[in-house]
Amino acid sequence: MSGKVCLLTTVAISVLPFCASGAAAGDQKPPMTHARGAVHRVISAVPGSVTLHDQNDSDTGVAIISTNFTDDGFDIYDTNGADDFVVPKGHTWKVREVDVTGIYTGADGPAASENILVYQNQNGLPRPLLAHCDEVVGIDNQGGSFAIKLPRSCKIALQGGRRYWISVVANMSFECCGTWTWETRNTQNGKPAAWENPNGGFGTACTTGDVMTDCIGDYGEGPDFMFTLKGRDVTP
Question: pLDDT by residue (tens digit) across 63-83?
Answer without folding.
Answer: 999 999 999 999 999 999 999
